[in-house]
Write a structure and sequence with these properties.
Length: about 180
């Protein structure tokens, strides 16, 4: 009986130790958020923390990233969507992902052109400001470059494929096609 009482006392004493602190020890998963705006370099002595700013319609969000180079020329001055976590203690948004968003501008000057290739058995509409290169069984559509660098492109090709059915092969003497 004495052993049972000692055991119960030990369980109650140890079970009660630190049980109130367990909630403080648990940490929630970070809440990923996304924001859209224009990335700008940050002045050295301005009021914001971080290394860059995201200018949105009516607010500014300080940014930093330990894994991405926010000073890359494809991000600076570009309309982007950033993903990450807001660090409240430091008042900065920690960027873990970024993608450049190009707005498709409607313009009367850019219409559609129809391309038909009897050789490829293809009929397709493409923007009139795109380049088209036709080289045998390969079509390449190139979008206009915004900054003189590599332009996006789409390639369509046709490769010959010879198929001979076993049923039509004269050397095959299958009597029943289901065998």
């Amino acid at each position: 009986m004495k052993k049972i009482l000692v055991f119960l006392f030990a369980v109650l004493a140890l079970g009660g130790c630190g049980s109130g602190d367990i909630e403080n020890m648990l940490v929630d998963e970070p809440r990923l958020e996304t924001f859209r705006g224009v990335v700008e370099s940050q002045d050295d002595f301005d009021e914001y923390s971080g290394t860059h700013l995201l200018r949105m319609e009516d607010e500014v969000l300080p940014l930093r990233s330990l894994s991405l180079n926010l000073s890359n020329k494809k991000y600076l001055g570009a309309n982007v969507e950033v993903m990450g976590v807001y660090v409240e203690d430091e008042a900065v948004f920690e960027v873990t992902g970024i993608s450049v968003k190009r707005a498709v501008e409607e313009s009367d000057s850019v219409g559609m052109v129809e391309f038909v290739s009897e050789n490829l058995g293809l009929k397709i509409n493409y923007y009139s400001d795109w380049e088209l290169d036709e080289n045998g069984n390969l079509l390449t559509f190139r979008a206009p470059s915004l900054d003189g660098s590599f332009a996006d492109q789409i390639e369509i090709s046709m490769s010959p494929y010879d198929f001979v059915s076993e049923l039509e092969d004269p050397e095959n003497d299958l009597a029943d096609p289901l065998e």
